[in-house]
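ARCHIVE RECORD
Type: protein–small molecule complex
Small molecule: nicotinamide-adenine-dinucleotide
Source of inputs: curated submission
Record status: active
Notes field left blank by submitter.
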Amino acid sequence: MKFQDHAEGGVTVITLDNPPLNSLGHVLRSRIVAAIEVAEVDPAVRAIVLTGSPRAFSAGADVSEFGTPRQMAEPILRSVLERIRICTKPVVAALDGVALGGGLELALACHARVALGQARVGLPEITLGLIPGSGGTQRLPRLAGIDLALTLMQGGAPMAAAQLASTSLFDRVVDDGLIEAAADVARQLADAGAPWPHADRLNLDAEYVATKVSLARQRLNARQRLQPAYGALLDAIGASAGPIDAGLALERARFLGLIGTTEAQALRYQFKAERDSHRLPDTLQVEPRKVATVAVIGAGTMGAGIAICALDATLDVILLEQDETALARGRQRIADHYAGRVAAGKLGAAVADAAQARLTGTCDWQALARADVVIEAVFEELSVKQDVFRRLDAVARPGAVLATNTSYLDIDAIAAVTSRPQDVLGLHFFSPAQVMKLLEVIRGAHTSPDAMATAMTLGRTLRKVPVLCGNAFGFIGNRIYNAYRRQCEFMLEDGAWPEEVDQALTDFGFAMGPFAVADLSGLDIAWRMRRAQAATRDPRERHVPVLEQLCEQGRLGQKSGAGYYRYADGKRAQTTDDTVHDLIVQASAARGIQRRTLAPQEIQRRALLAMVNEAACLYADGVATRPSDIDVVLVQGYGFPRWQGGPVFWARQQDRERLGADLRCLVEAGGHGMRLADDTMLARLLD
Ligand code: NAD
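STRUCTURE (tokenized, with ligand):
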């Protein structure tokens, strides 16, 4: 903790000093109290400015203290805030960098707040299944109004102080001269004399708060309703119109009630799992190659999205297509994307123009010679991709990383047509590529460590969550999703209807059920793959032919107006129709199955067991580096509810003996060829 006496006017500046982000661990909390007490008794001090570093006023709680006695050791944050409130000299928070969670709560408990416009403030507790626990739910509505408080706390995303300059959250927002401005405010408060202004003395219109909170409660979506923190947050915010002590007590009670929930544990686990996912194993800890220019081959759905990611990351992008018409189409996609963001006020026109100025469109392969990384996103056909890589091999500069965005093809078969398999790897983006965070980074048999390190670093540059994968069919995500979808098809044969399966899984928290997803992405992709596999499929294998039969009738999903469901004006029918029912009943009869009702719990459990079984198998095969990577993939790429942690997290919550027994039953019912994750494999995954 640094002290620095301000020359004029008796203002002392207390600088929080716990790099890198001034997390409010026990030591820092104790020091703040001590510094306030020292300043309070110093007759030369009339007012206090509390500030942090350019990186952070404070990013909030010290996560390493979670679950340890230090977290609850006095002074807890609430006591620090109370000490500031009762200070006999005014305390002004001066904010730069981030003020998040407890960091913002610290500022809210001061007598005034001054911020640099670029400072970012937020109460992101909801993203960890919690609510602010040190007065945030009470003081933010009082200071900034109920509407902004709801936005910040329910959304969890930080906002720039400049965006909040017109609100009463800040006494001043400045572009520079932060400490001078804060000292000025502090001096004015000292001159005006006690009592200093404080959030706790403000009153809100009770009726308005009640109406807003009730509206917010009605507007909670299905996924938010499944998470206890959303209801608890609204309870606490609702109390902000009453006496402060009662509101703080309610907030505390709700906060403590949430800490131990499975949802909060799962969200903390995911947070850590995502941080871990980009850490390379020791063998790959090498210096990455420099990347300034990325080339993308193919400007279709994926290619255009990948190009946008790279442009947003301020990289130069070369976009190559097979002809001028396709190139113009791709360019138009990118232009439309930026125009949309500008129109929605999400991006400045100058930034959008600058991004597009970094884009070069071409049909000339020689133009790829200056790329540091080339990402191929052409049709999903091995021969087409091999042809592309042959041409690429002839023009790419030595040392360029050559990546394929294939969803299923063998990276080694693609690398084999080049003279440099050490530079070839997979970069599996998800659709829409400019939105989805997940990036599977696939290592071929010959990919060099520095090429892998480059790809993982590029993933971070593109603001993705890169996950290292082995080169096996479907990598991590599609392999598990296929097992899950297959199990859901088995459940149709056993007696469930698509809407029952979809409902049970959305009730579990999936964004969509598997049949609604299949209709959305188009059944023809799976149809094509299944026809290719049909020739080699063992006739003893359990296979549900409904999808193929739907496609044969022209029911390709949403785009053709019908798939598992019918779509009138783009809206999905609640239930499936007779055609679908007839096909399913025939499938059951053909397998000699007496149809029965499947309870939602059985549907959920079987779907999850299928994922866990496949996860254990692929982990045993070395496709994933760590079990938590599997959960990151499912949550980030496949709509698995984040607050359920992922299939591995879910499995760890289950009784192990029953889990093993259920997996054996599942695999037995799955018929010939289905691989069982035995107890050893399961233990490797879960212990
Ligand atoms: P798409 O059909 O929308 O685009 C492919 C583009 O590649 C077309 O514009 C085509 O003109 C171009 N192209 C084809 N051959 C070319 C060549 N020789 N040289 C230059 N350009 C060529 O396909 P998409 O959906 O963008 O998929 C591309 C790849 O991404 C596939 O491998 C696919 O499996 C993979 N992928 C797709 C998704 C998805 O959801 N669409 C998700 C992940 C991965």
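CURATOR ANNOTATION: Residues 283-471 form a domain with the Rossmann fold fold (CATH 3.40.50.720).
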